[in-house]
Every structure is written in C-alpha cells, then in structure tokens.
Design goal:
Strand order of the largest sheet: 1-8-3-6
Low-confidence stretches: none
CATH class: Mainly Beta
Number of domains: 1
Shape: elongated
Number of helices: 0
Radius of gyration: 16 Å
Largest sheet: 4 strands, antiparallel
Order of helices and strands: EEEEEEEE
Helix content: under 10%
Mean pLDDT: 85
CATH architecture: Sandwich
Structural class: mainly beta
CATH topology: Jelly Rolls
Strand content: 35-45%
Length: 106
C-alpha cells in the first residue's frame, strides 16, 4: 500500500518523525503475569526482541484486562510504529522462559 501525504492544496508534504539523541536498553525476564516494560512519557521510538521460546504480548496502558495490543512470536522482533504510544507499556508471556531485550529512544 502506498499513501501520499498532501496539504489542503494537494502539494506533497513530508511526515514529521520524532528525533532522538538519547536511549536506553534493558532486559526483562519473561513472566506469565503482566510486568512493566516501558514507562517514559516522552519516547519517540521503541523496539522489543522477544528472546523467548514463548509468545510475548504487549499491552499499551495498564494490564486491567486479559487483552493485548501486539503479539510477538517467539524469537521475533517488533518496532513501534511512527506514531508512538507514549503511555505505559506492559508485557507478559505464555510461559516464563527467556527474556525481552528492549530499546527505548527519547
């Protein structure tokens, strides 16, 4: 799919993407209960490498219900979309083995 962005006059425009000069990388052990993964309210990008043999579930916002936003298969990589959620992100796995390697840019 190709999307062409234009202004009200039909002239092409470039999307604005956040820039970053700082970042942090963390590793979180797998858990079958939701655990906090990312908390920065000013992030511009994040990525998650699910280094587990179990599927991982990311949920944007609080873990109040047994729902999820993104399912990351075992040993797969996920990058945030251009428009980044800036609230809390929690995660859990089907089984508590392995970990997630997370990079967050802000």
């Amino acid at each position: 799919m190709y999307v062409k962005l234009t202004d009200k006059n039909g002239s092409p425009v470039q999307p604005v993407v956040g820039a970053s000069s700082k970042g942090r990388s963390i590793s979180i052990s797998a858990s079958t209960d939701y655990v906090p993964l990312l908390a920065l309210s000013h992030r511009v990008f994040f990525s998650v490498q699910n280094s587990s043999t179990s599927a991982m579930y990311l949920k944007y916002d609080a873990p109040e219900y047994e729902t999820w936003t993104v399912r990351i298969p075992p040993n797969w990589y996920f990058e945030s979309p251009v428009t980044v959620w800036q609230g809390a992100i929690v995660g859990k796995w089907d089984a508590a083995n392995g970990s997630a390697n997370i990079t967050e840019l802000y």
